[in-house]
Write a structure and sequence with these properties.
The chain is mostly helical.
Length: 133
């Protein structure tokens, strides 16, 4: 008896002949396949009363719809045209003036000693914490 033929019939749900049934009960490989198929079938039959759309599709679709709505609302946001143009122009001019006047360079030089002091204090703090453990 050919195990592959029996496996194919089992997987296709076809009826077995008497000789094939005898082989099925005597061959450990075919018997294991049959038992696995019966077990799988019973699991699927138990799950039948739960709608498949609820299990997989609905939560995924809700997430997709939420993401699309949030993206649409983000992309559709438009401030009032006159106000936004004015703010953009003022922001550009102020940024340009601050960069040209070396404001940020001077601010960096002013904050450097504070940053170094803070770094030293944090280093000391973390070394103290490290010594506790």
């Amino acid at each position: 008896m050919d195990c592959e033929e029996i496996a194919e019939k089992l997987l296709n749900g076809e009826r077995l002949e008497e000789t094939e049934k005898r082989h099925l009960h005597s061959c450990p490989d075919c018997k294991e396949l049959y038992e696995t198929l019966i077990e799988t079938k019973s699991i699927w039959e138990e799950k039948e009363d739960v709608p498949s759309s609820y299990i997989a599709v609905d939560p995924v679709m809700r997430i997709i719809v939420e993401k699309e709505r949030s993206l649409e609302s983000f992309l559709s946001f438009r401030p009032k045209s006159g106000v936004s143009a004015m703010y953009m122009a003022v922001s550009f001019i102020l940024s340009f003036l601050l960069f040209e006047s070396n404001f940020f360079r001077e601010l960096g030089e002013f904050l450097t000693p504070f940053n170094l002091g803070l770094s030293a204090k944090m280093e000391h703090f973390f070394s103290y914490l490290g010594s506790l453990f």
